[in-house]
Design goal:
This protein has about 50 residues and is mostly beta strands. It has no helices and four strands. A hairpin with a 4-residue loop joins strand 3 and strand 4.
Length: about 50
């Protein structure tokens, strides 16, 4: 898998990087926002894609 398609997800509450994923940057231009479980906050929070 190419490294340039790797994206990080950061918790919107505690600002920690909890998840990594891949996306096709040619088809998806906007930043992703997903509700994921944060082990530091111990609840489901909004995780936003951040820069490398």
């Amino acid at each position: 898998m190419p490294q340039d398609n790797l994206i990080k997800f950061q918790c919107s509450e505690c600002k920690r990087i909890n998840y990594y994923s891949h996306k096709n940057k040619k088809t998806i231009q906007k930043k992703l926002e997903l509700k994921k479980h944060c082990k530091w906050c111990r609840k489901h929070t909004l995780h936003k894609e951040m820069k490398k």
